[in-house]
Design goal:
The complex is a heterodimer.
Chain A lengths: L4 E3 L2 E4 L5 E6 L6 E7 L6 E7 L2 E5 L6 E5 L5 E5 L8 E8 L9 E2 L3 E5 L1
Parallel strand pairs in A: 2-11
Antiparallel strand pairs in A: 1-3, 3-8, 4-5, 4-9, 5-6, 7-8, 9-10, 9-11
Chain B lengths: L3 E4 L2 E5 L4 E7 L7 E6 L6 E6 L5 E4 L2 E6 L4 E6 L8 E9 L6 E4 L3 E6 L1
Parallel strand pairs in B: 2-11
Antiparallel strand pairs in B: 1-3, 3-8, 4-5, 4-9, 6-7, 7-8, 9-10, 9-11
The chains are: A mainly beta, B mainly beta.
């Protein structure tokens, strides 16, 4: 079975540009969460979606937005990129978005802002 | 403020030894406590998890000890192997606000010498 698929794996962008990251959850999983992992730190929660509805949002500026599609895949958009946005962006897939159900992480998208 | 404090930052043990990683939290709303293992270039993978109404959970060589009154929990890796060398994150599930977001510690880089 395919795990959580994220694309692209690596990305280099210039400050001020916009970026879109993509995630395909495990088949049958209806919830997707996004996390930002800065080098040397633990992942930090950005968004959670369940059944195409935003269920929660972390402490990130409005430059960050996301959506979930009818097939449960998801996109994370970041506008007006800043140097501090350089990080590994992780997508976590879950059957119903409950921790006890288990979150499965993808390998992430490494974003570098120069 | 850091909601989940993890120590030590790095740990070196000999093959066959016991690795112990400690975490502490303040928010009594946290209701689920997973540990994740992350290898370079990969996303975090769920290792073992515990609910706050249980004091200990063991799965193979991995054991979580949980002290609800002290708001502390720890991971013990028995008979540590070189293949266990990775970064370990404790986390807590925060159900407030409608989403079950994971709050991570800063991680412990474990090195097991052969």
């Amino acid at each position: 079975d395919a795990g959580v698929t994220q694309s692209p794996t690596h990305l280099i962008k210039t400050r001020g540009q916009q970026v879109t990251l993509r995630c395909s959850p495990i088949s049958g999983h209806k919830s997707v969460s996004w996390y930002q992992q800065v080098l040397g730190q633990g992942p930090q929660f950005i968004f959670q979606y369940y059944e195409k509805e935003e269920r929660g949002r972390g402490n990130f500026p409005d430059r960050f937005s996301a959506r979930q599609f009818p097939n449960y895949s998801s996109e994370l958009n970041v506008n007006a990129l800043e140097l501090d946005d350089s990080a590994l962006y992780l997508c976590a897939s879950s059957p119903v978005g409950r921790a006890w159900n288990g979150y499965t992480f993808g390998s992430g998208t490494r974003l570098t802002v120069v | 403020q850091q909601q989940v404090k993890q120590s030590p930052q790095s740990l070196i043990v000999q093959k066959g030894g016991i690795s112990i990683i400690n975490c502490a939290y303040e928010n009594t709303a946290f209701d689920y406590f997973p540990w994740y293992q992350q290898f370079p270039g990969k996303g975090p993978a769920l290792l073992i998890a515990i609910r706050p109404d249980v004091s200990e959970k063991k799965e193979g060589r991995f054991t979580i000890s949980f002290n609800k009154s002290a708001k502390q929990f720890s991971l013990h890796i028995m008979d540590s192997q070189p293949g266990d060398s990775a970064t370990y994150f404790c986390a807590a599930s925060d159900p407030t606000g409608g989403s079950e977001k994971l709050v991570f510690g800063k991680g412990t880089k474990l090195t097991v010498n052969p």
